[in-house]
Design brief:
heterodimer; A: Dipeptide-binding Protein, domain 3; four-stranded antiparallel β-sheet; B: 319 residues; mainly alpha; MetI-like fold; 12 helices; 76% helix
């Protein structure tokens, strides 16, 4: 008999496994009161670790569990409706907004929510030292009057048709809690994670760094007591981690990548939620590199890329080809050039433009912060297609920090990003595109870092944004679309669908893969879990 | 031995300072800084806004000045604050992460040592058998599998397919603490961490045992009629352990590298996850503090290995 026989070895192994708890663990996520655990900050709409609404650029799905803005988009992201605002009127010159607040709204410490809180929040959001990302977007507001506890009057210096859209993202903050804090300390202030209060249905209880955030229901919520006792927002390093947690039943909702959908196909335990990303993907011509000035070159890029084939084969049909900065029907006019795949025409245009002398076969770096397998494949396909017509692109995917450092450099190295492969939110409010395309936004004034200086495009944006007659909004942005389609500041590619997966046990659960995670009317107080 | 230990510790401190300088320089050579990681390309930021943010974070000072300020503060016990939005003190962040990392690493190591030693002995004693071949094959897979690959396969198999273990984290959120909950979260990452280490220990133990089993004193013991089990357990294993102890000591220091991958995949709230997140966000104070702690761990483990070796083998003198 040997030193250690088979039986001994098996016994040691079994004992070790038993001691360490490795056993089927079904049901570890559900016990006690109803708790909804989700990956609310997974994917491009998430912003894990940010609890300061003044600094939120995304992550509204998690933020709106406890914070609330005056207005939100409806559940279809098609129109703006009131949330903490009960109603509003706009003056004929569009420069005065009178907002009536919901009655009986309370902060989570029981203090009434009033117009003074709205005025305080707006002032704080206009204060640069607070780290607010809304300073520029609220710059048209010159005065905030509070004639009574439930009425707010906003006076504007100029017409701003995007004001309500901006107000959907601005969460109301409690004056009585924050007025004693120096605004310049707010960007990194422990207040945001030390029992902050808001008006929403769930109270922020606990943040465990890099792990999860725990919320409990606010019993005196003005729309009624939430049905779920607790919500847990779990953080995941990757979307794949969230998918694993979904499949194993640890969480009930998460954003998922398109190529993860097959994992849920035919599984009756889950619902797949599909939505418009409202983000147009594009190849941005860096005009600072001085190789894209000739319009024929830009047209050649459009004709050389078989966008339909990429959408069909790589995105599995789950994207829509974009011929300008957006695909929302009411902003897209008829008669746009669809730039159907025509490599021969691309070669001809390049020849006419004298591409050999402009750049020829010299490599052009394509900078991108997309670093998934799918985006690598897409860039690979475009690289192959463009090389066939004589444009030699070299993809360079980097992290967001490197991307920003490259494009925001005081003296940019234009050769390091001859093109960018990126995305920009194009809706529900299309005016968002202005910051990336209007010549007035060329740094240091704004974020037009590819130095687009096309008068037709800038003029179309200026007209749309300053038009005092709101009824022309749609036709104005149709003109922007037309200018983009003709002048080609970008090679617009497609708008992809985005997906979420939710447990079939969730009831009255409103979730959508909205850009930035919303905000939209998600009514968390109605969410429930079937027993 | 005390003098030797003090000398090694002093050299270790000098190495830590050199390490901190190197990391500081490398960080600044990498593209992007905390402000770049902070902003969204869709938010209008002027050059003046970004300069103001950099000044607030102290990034506008010359690099040598920034380094000396950091070093001065560290020597006074102040590792600074995270540059991210919660602004937590670095020392508190690190303090909260050391425990989970030690738990994971030591559990992984404990499993690796137990399984590795047993498998190495069995393999050597049963040399040439099917059991030996199987253990060698498993060990070969273990040493040649990158930690991130093993982690992903393990996660998929044991969590997604078999539902035997949670997919990540250290404890179930919003649930009261329970030892079973902690162990159920720990076992999978610990086993995966142990996979590579136990393969290494198996191979070392096997070859060391094979060498010892051919020694004269083993033959003498057999000639005297000592039972085979006793020969192996009392004479062979004890002598074969020496080189394995060296291996365990040196890899215990370096195991933190494997833990970084494992922690990222399993969202285990340890030093590795903290460091990876900090690098992505260019959170300089956290990166510097974490590197210092990890560097100190490696240095101390190496010194400890030398000292333990001298204790185990009286023939070895440290000086």
């Amino acid at each position: 008999m040997g030193l250690i026989g088979n039986r001994t070895l098996a016994a040691v192994t079994s004992a070790a496994l038993a001691l360490t708890g490795l056993a089927p663990v079904a049901g570890w996520a559900a016990a006690g009161d109803k708790t909804l655990t989700g990956g609310f900050d997974v994917g491009p709409g998430g912003f894990p670790g940010n609890f300061n609404p003044l600094m939120a650029t995304t992550g509204y799905m998690a933020l709106t569990l406890n914070y609330q803005p005056l207005f939100v988009y409806d559940g279809k992201l098609s129109q703006i409706v009131g949330q903490l605002a009960k109603s509003y009127t706009v003056s004929d010159d569009k420069k005065t907004y009178t907002i009536t607040l919901q009655p009986d709204v309370k902060w989570q410490d029981g203090t009434p929510f009033t117009s003074a809180d709205v005025a305080f929040t707006l002032k704080l959001a206009q204060d640069k030292t607070s780290g607010s990302v809304y300073v520029d977007r609220l710059s048209a507001i010159t005065d905030v009057e509070t004639p009574d506890a439930h009425t707010v009057v906003l006076k504007l210096s100029k017409v701003n048709l995007s004001l309500l859209d901006t107000l959907t993202k601005l969460m109301m903050l409690p004056k009585h809690k924050l007025e004693k804090i120096d605004p310049s300390t707010l960007p990194r202030n422990p207040y945001w994670t030390d029992h902050p209060i808001a008006t929403g249905p769930f109270v922020f209880d606990k943040y465990v760094t890099d792990q999860y955030v725990e919320y409990s229901r606010f019993k005196e919520y003005w729309r009624g007591e939430p049905k779920i006792a607790r919500v847990v927002n779990r953080y995941f390093k990757t979307t794949a981690g969230a998918v694993s947690a979904l499949k194993s039943g640890e969480i009930q909702i998460s954003y998922v990548n398109a190529d993860d959908l097959s994992a849920f196909k035919g599984d009756k335990g889950f619902h797949v939620i599909k939505g418009n990303s409202f983000v147009v993907n594009y190849l941005g011509f860096n005009f600072g590199a001085k190789i894209w000035d000739n319009q024929k070159v830009r047209q050649a890029v459009m004709y050389a890329i078989n966008r339909k084939a990429i959408v069909d084969s790589l995105y599995g049909g789950m994207a829509k080809v974009a011929n300008c900065g957006y695909v929302v029907d009411r902003y897209v006019p008829k008669g746009l050039n669809d730039y159907a795949y025509d490599p021969e025409k691309a070669r001809q245009l390049l020849k006419e433009a004298g591409w050999d002398k402009i750049n020829g076969s010299k490599p052009i770096k394509v900078l991108t912060y997309y670093n998934t397998q799918l985006s690598d494949n897409v860039l690979g396909a475009m690289q192959a297609m463009l090389s066939q017509v004589g444009i030699n692109i070299v993809p360079r995917d980097v992290d967001m920090s490197t991307y920003n450092a490259t494009i925001y450099a005081t003296t940019p190295d234009y050769d390091s990003f001859g093109l960018v492969y990126a995305g920009l939110t194009n809706g529900p409010d299309p005016s968002n595109l202005n910051i990336g395309l209007n010549a007035s936004q060329i740094p240091p004034n704004g974020s037009n870092y590819t130095r687009v200086n096309l008068p037709g495009v800038s003029k179309a944006f200026d007209t749309a944004l300053s038009d005092a007659d709101g009824s022309k909004y749609d036709s104005d942005f149709q003109n922007v679309c037309k200018a983009m389609n003709t002048d080609l500041p970008w090679a617009t590619l497609w708008v992809t669908d985005r997906f979420g997966v939710a447990s079939a046990k969730l009831k009255d659960f409103v979730w959508m893969p909205a850009p930035g995670g919303g905000p939209y009317a998600s009514h968390p107080e109605k969410w429930d879990i079937a027993n | 031995m005390l003098r030797y230990t003090l000398k090694r510790l002093a050299a270790g401190a000098a190495m830590l300072i050199a390490l901190s300088m190197l990391v500081f320089i490398l960080l600044r050579l990498a593209p992007g800084d905390p402000v770049d990681a902070y902003i969204d390309p869709m938010v209008k930021m002027s050059a003046a806004d970004m300069a103001r943010l950099r000044a607030e974070l102290g990034l506008d000072k010359p690099l040598p000045v920034q380094y000396l300020i950091w070093l001065r503060d560290v020597l006074h016990g102040d590792f600074g604050r995270s540059l991210q939005r919660t602004g937590e003190p670095v020392l508190a962040l690190i303090g909260s992460r050391i425990g989970p990392t030690l738990l994971l690493m030591l559990s992984g190591f404990g499993i690796a040592i137990i399984f590795g030693l047993i498998a190495g002995v069995v393999s050597a004693v049963k040399r040439g058998s099917v059991r030996d071949g199987t253990l060698l094959a498993v060990a070969a897979v273990g040493v040649s599998s990158p930690a991130f690959l093993t982690a992903l396969i393990g996660l998929y198999l044991f969590s997604v397919v078999l539902h035997w273990a949670p997919s990540g984290g250290m404890l179930t959120p919003a649930m009261p603490f329970s030892l079973h909950d902690l162990l159920s979260h720990l076992i999978l990452p610990a086993l995966i961490l142990a996979f590579y280490q136990s393969a290494l220990v198996t191979r070392y133990m096997r070859s060391s045992m094979l060498e010892v089993l051919t020694q004269d004193y083993i033959r003498t013991a057999r000639a005297k009629g000592v039972r085979e089990n006793r020969i192996v357990s009392h004479h062979a294993v004890r002598n074969a352990l020496l080189p394995v102890v060296t291996l365990i000591g040196s890899t215990l220091g370096l195991a933190v590298g494997g833990a970084i991958f494992i922690e990222s995949v399993f969202n285990w709230p340890g030093m590795g996850l903290l460091l990876v997140n900090a690098v992505e966000l260019r959170d300089y104070p956290v990166i510097m503090g974490s590197t210092l702690v990890i560097g100190a761990w490696v240095i101390v483990m190496n010194i400890a290995t030398d000292l333990v070796y001298a204790v185990i083998d009286p023939r070895v003198k440290v000086s």
